[in-house]
Amino acid sequence: RDLNPEEPEGADTWQGSVRSSTTWQDVTVPFARMRNVIDDPRGTLELGDTQAIVFLVDTGAVPPGTGGTIWIDNLRVY
Questions:
Q1: d(Cα 9, Cα 12) in Å, to the nearest integer?
Q2: 70: which residues sit within 8 A by CB, 6+ positions away?
Q3: Strands 2-3 and 11-12
Q4: Which tens digit of pLDDT belongs to each residue from 16-73?
Q5: Can you tell me whether residue 2 is helix, strand or coil?
Q6: Are 51 and 11 in contact (CB under 8 A)?
Q7: Taking the CB of the first residue and of the last residue of the chain, which one, N or C, has fewer CB atoms within 10 A?
Q8: What pLDDT does residue 41 have?
Q9: What is the DSSP string of 3-34?
């Protein structure tokens, strides 16, 4: 999420999807692949205004109530 005072929540939300796996994997999500969740073509991801990085398991991928663990290690942003 990056600051945007024009939005009701004060921020734009950007997403980049990846699939989890039962084996360890390296994943790269290029900033150019991030999409504004409201599909605003005028939106620009402002890395200097980043407020949060959020990880979400989508209910389209697994039903609510599903148990499991996702390990995230060596998170880097560059």
A1: 8
A2: 20, 55, 57
A3: antiparallel
A4: 988 888 899 999 999 888 888 887 766 788 888 888 888 888 888 788 888 888 889 9
A5: strand
A6: yes
A7: C
A8: 67
A9: E-TTSTTSEE-EE------SS-------GGG-
The confidence score (pLDDT) of residue 77 equals 82
What are the residues facing 12 on neighbouring strands? 2
**Alpha carbon distance 34, 2 (integer Å):** 12
User: What is residue 37's three-state secondary structure?
Assistant: coil
pTM for the complete prediction? 0.70
Q: Amino acid identity, residue 39? A: D
Structure tokens at 18: 């990846």
Q: How confident is the model at residue 9 (pLDDT cuts 50, 70, 90)?
A: confident
In the Cβ-directed half-sphere of 12, how many Cα atoms lie within 13 Å?
21
